[in-house]
Design a protein that fits this description.
Layout lengths: L2 E5 L6 E5 L19 E2 L12 E4 L5 E4 L10 H12 L1
Amino acid sequence: MPLYEFECPICKQRFEELGSITNMPLGPSCPDCQVVTRKLVSLSSFRMAVPFTVVDSDGRVRHYQPDGGTKLPSVEDEAKELKKEYA
């Protein structure tokens, strides 16, 4: 479940809430003022475990290694590969 950041329009206190956006059409009440808060746009942060595997929409599986094993293909390389497959 995602973590959302909110700010009180009165006291400017910021806090985070865990929950679904569909369950939070309005922001939760400020813990101090009890005023409805507004949702902030915040950066997402995640880290992928490596090595990792990617399955694309065509079902192709690719394994990626942190040590320079397999690298992410460029858009151009991907387009060339698809042309070969569907030619």
